[in-house]
Amino acid sequence: MFAQMSVWGLILLQQEVAFDLVSMWNQMGLAARAVVVIMFLMSAWSIGVMIDRYIAFNAARKQSRQYAPAVAGALREGKLEEAIKVSERYKKSHLAKVVAAGLQEFSAHQMSSEIPGETIESSKRALERAQAITHAELNRGLSGLATIGSTAPFVGLFGTVVGIINAFEGISTEKSTGLGAVAGGISEALVATAIGLFVAIPAVWMFNYFNSKVEAFDVEMDNSSSELIDYFLKKTQKMAAH
Fold this sequence. Notes:
The protein starts with a helix and ends with a helix. The longest helix has 63 residues, at 179-241. The chain is built from 8 helices and no strands. The protein is an all-alpha fold.
């Protein structure tokens, strides 16, 4: 009979233990709640970066596709001022930002009496500066995304450790090893682990995705800079021949 009563008592105890989100939050200690709040803030920030970079990269890709043939046509006709105006119209294009800097520098030096070689070197430095600035703009927020992706599991692990400690404290306080004694600690550990992975996995995926996009943009900017320098050299040679 006592065995039956103990079994029924365990069943009733298990029924009282709820593992829905509200109940688990209520069972959490102060440290575990702080961990969950921190991870939700990390998740919100990383989602904001993802949305911002996705919009910026899509705009850069779209405008660059429109910009490339437009500026190429102006340069073929030898219209530097027109090429500069075209570049200024595509403010979100990574190619336009770089090419515009080189065109402006070349145009400014072309009006002076500088040695052609110095004009080319000056234009090359302007292109390099513009490319470095544009690369930094494209990379904005990605280092934070990488940091969240690498640290969120450890923050979750800290919450897991806190939950396990609370579970043992429950056993010590209740003088029992039943589910009720460890339910609070187990819920803390499970929630902290799950949220840590939930925050980290998308952050790592999206960091790798955006990083590959930045590398592709860098290659495009390098190629555009090289082609523009070749154009300047040919134009300088023609001017010297005349």
